[in-house]
Amino acid sequence: MMDKNNDPVYSPNVIEFVAVANEYCKYLEHASEIKGEEMLKIMQRIMPLLYLKATLLPALDPYFEEGNEKFVTEDTWRKIFEELRQKLGTADEFLEVNENKFDEASLPVKSGISENMTDIYQDIKDFLLLYQTGTVEVMNDAIWECRNSFEGIWGQKLVNTIRAIHRFLYSGEEIGRIETEEHEQDDERRDTSEWFISKRQQDYRRNGK
């Protein structure tokens, strides 16, 4: 019989990360019930804790060579993203600079709190569903992948989002409605073929993965 006290997948640091990750996902899944400013205030408290707990995940070696199963579909991603974008309105967009490639020609690019939050949700929800299987090997690889993804992708997105949330909450501004028609036109012009998968691949390439 396995001693759960000695296996790192059951360590206190992992259990605490799971608890915070569950809270994060719960709020995004119920975004329709929460006002935009209230959501930002909730994330202002949860996201720094999520970052802290992620840094304490153990460094493990994977059992399996093939990648982990994914559960968050494009439809799920889009539903959460659209709900957040509508709720956050004019608070959503912020400027971001890729510091790894910064030079004199580099310019800040538009980013979105809603997009970053949904990307983070995608990785964390996949982790949670794998961890909840109760199979040690699967749980181990879920932790391994989540830690790697945190270091290379969603950890930076989380930090950038915290900065954007802080700026807005203390700016004295109020959330205004976004121009839905403008966004619909942007969506019509955007080629979304294989978007969900290609976007993840671009994230990995951008971060040297």
Question: Could you explain the architecture of this structure?
Answer:
- Helix 2 packs across helix 5 and helix 3 (74-88) packs across helix 4.
- The protein has one domain: Up-down Bundle (Four Helix Bundle (Hemerythrin (Met), subunit A)).
- By secondary structure, it is mainly α.
- 61% of the residues lie in helices and 4% in strands.
- The longest helix is centred in the last third of the chain and has 34 residues, at 136-169.
Q: What low-confidence regions span 5 or more consecutive residues with pLDDT below 50? A: 184-198
CATH fold node name: Four Helix Bundle (Hemerythrin (Met), subunit A)
Could you give the count of β-strands?
Answer: 2
Give the termini separation: 37 Å
Number of structurally distinct domains: 1
Q: What's the main sheet like?
A: 2 strands, antiparallel
Q: Strands of the largest sheet, in order across it? A: 1-2
Taking all Cα atoms into account, the compactness measure Rg is: 18 Å
Kindly report the name of the CATH homologous superfamily: Protein of unknown function DUF5063
Q: Give the CA-based shape.
A: elongated
In N-to-C order, the SSE pattern is: HHHEEHHHH
Report the helical percentage. Answer: 55-70%
**Backbone structural class:** mainly alpha
What is the averaged pLDDT score?
A: 86
- Report the CATH C-level class: Mainly Alpha
Named CATH architecture: Up-down Bundle
Q: Number of helical runs?
A: 7
What percent strand?
under 5%
